[in-house]
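Entry 14: structure prediction run for Hemerythrin-like domain-containing protein. Input pasted below.
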Amino acid sequence: MAVIPTLRKTVAYFEEPARGPVPADIYEAQYWEMAGAHACLMNGLLNVYNQATSVPKEKETDFVGYALQWVAALEHHHHWEETIYYPLFNPKFDTASIVAEHATFTKGMHDFEEYLVSCLPEGEKWGYGQVAGPHEQRPYDGQKLRDLVDAFVDPLTKHFMQEITYLEPTKIRASGLTEAEVKHIGDVSTKHMKEMPPATFLVYTIIHSPPSSGFPPVPGIVKSFFCPYVFSLPNRRFWQFAPKGGVVP
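Run finished. Output tokens:
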């Protein structure tokens, strides 16, 4: 499997449904937001994979921390789906098959996470407040990183591409979920996202979303001022690896 072309194709697949600002129609907004989240996450993985074998020796620890921001973002995305978002669709809209697909790439993801954490110094913070516990630090190997991604990228991309087909607006409407119920789903989700740490979660989401999309749906001043000049500062050593303008070269 040619991973870089596959990831680029997958990002492009999500760019169209995530294009522009969040739709006013609440059913269409669910589809748009999921496509936007997937475009962001695939763009982030593409950027990690693309740089993995060319990281300067003196920047390896920072790059590992950057890659672990992607891990944290993906793990949060699926935890949110399983514990907050999809339970709100039931029983009218059965989401069990969507959640079941997570098992197809979970082991590969955990192997990837464990390897990256093992490359950090003991006591190093990563993700959303996690800390690398006692361990013998391993040397960073960019090809090893790529091999670990190779092991889970196919089921992950297939799941992402399949998932938004479940959330097509006509299908959500056909389930019988009312506008009020779907609005409640959106409101609960938005409240949760606002509680996430801005210096990691929010910054990552903004700077890895393709420029064609208005995702994430936050005020323009957050994207143009607070993100680059306030929220990004505590972890700027990670963001040096981020794609400029959300475009992976």
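Notes: DSSP finds eleven helices and two strands in the chain. Will compare against the previous run tomorrow.
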